[in-house]
Write a structure and sequence with these properties.
Elements (H helix, E strand, L loop, with lengths): L2 H13 L2 H8 L3 H15 L4 E4 L2 E4 L1 H11 L2 E4 L6 H12 L5 E4 L4 H10 L4 E4 L12 E15 L11 E2 L7 E3 L8 H13 L2 E3 L7 H10 L3 E6 L13 E6 L2 E11 L5 H13 L8 E2 L8
Parallel strand pairs: 3-4, 3-5, 7-11, 8-9, 8-10, 12-13
Antiparallel strand pairs: 1-2, 5-12, 6-10, 6-11, 6-12
Helix pairs in contact: 1-2, 1-3, 2-3
């Protein structure tokens, strides 16, 4: 079953209007109609009837709604990120829970989606300076992910078993995916200011494959990568992943959700993360001062 269509069905049922659901999902009303029509064909029933006030659930729609709401909708930043790995671990532990994993861009979009009920939870680094979470949004720190230095085979640090943060001063670290105003942008701004590093964001972001190609071919460039990030590259790239120490910068992943969300699978997810992730603020690690403690 198309999980996007199921999510759209729930949005229409809760909004009572196709137009309002389209706005909540940030898609067109035509796209909403197409998704609902496709879901109705899959199920072989009518889910809504048109009414003066909008869209009303049919008897079949009312019967399907509780099952559709069992779907747990979680936002991760990228498909190969540590957050995605956490969700894969959760799915292996709880294969009976239906998941809809999506990727929203920034924390404001994610919080809006949580408050509207479009998603149940989001993984974010919170809270960026001057942008506290709304009171109805809860959070818990779930993973501190160490940063590693990624270099090509000809880089000056390629042969090191580990590097200190001080050793990175003067080296060019290229990260074109950093976007101003994002929580990861705020994180790397503070990292640069704290340790006098040089992080360059020049050029378009063509994705991870282009980044890896460039790092492999350019001795003067390196980049940061999370320890749990899983990327694949050709063996002849000769890329090196090098731990960073003294201190180890860690990226703080937190889970966000609405305080009034009663979804039972959301509680299961929080319990799973609490039982399977390591501690936080360990000795010898660094995070920005604005990161919310556990």
């Amino acid at each position: 079953m198309d999980l996007e269509a199921v999510r759209t069905f729930v949005a229409v049922a809760e909004a009572g209007q196709f137009q309002k659901a389209a706005a909540d999902l940030s898609i067109t009303q035509q796209a909403v109609s197409k998704r609902i029509a496709a879901l109705e064909r899959t199920l072989g029933v009518r889910l809504f009837t048109r009414a003066p006030r909008g869209a009303e659930l049919t008897i079949d729609g009312q019967a399907f709604l509780p099952h559709a709401r069992e779907l747990l909708r979680v936002d991760v930043i990228a498909s190969r990120s540590a957050q995605s790995s956490l969700m894969r671990g959760f799915h292996r532990a709880h294969p009976d829970i239906d998941l809809d994993v999506m990727m929203l861009f920034d924390i404001e979009t994610a919080v809006t989606a949580i408050r509207s009920g479009t998603i149940d939870a989001s993984f974010r680094a919170i809270a960026a300076p001057g942008r506290p979470l709304p009171e109805d949004i809860a959070s818990v720190r779930v993973l501190d992910e160490p940063l590693q230095l990624l270099t090509g085979p000809a880089h000056a640090l390629a042969g090191a078993r580990s590097v200190t943060v001080a050793q990175l001063t003067g080296h060019r670290i290229w990260m074109p995916g950093i976007a101003p105003g994002t929580e990861w942008g705020a994180y790397y701004d503070d990292l640069v200011a704290e340790f006098d590093l040089t992080i360059e964001v020049t050029g378009p972001n063509f994705g991870s494959d282009a980044l890896l190609d460039t790092i492999s071919d350019t001795p003067a460039l390196a980049t940061f990568m999370g320890e749990h990030t899983r990327l694949i590259w050709p063996a002849d790239h000769g890329l090196r992943r090098i731990p960073v120490t003294d201190p180890t910068p860690v990226y703080p992943h937190s889970l966000l959700w609405h305080r009034d969300n009663p979804h039972p699978a959301l509680a299961t997810l929080r319990t799973h993360l609490a039982a399977t992730t390591a501690g936080h603020d360990a000795a010898g690690t660094w995070t920005p001062g604005w990161v919310i403690p556990r």
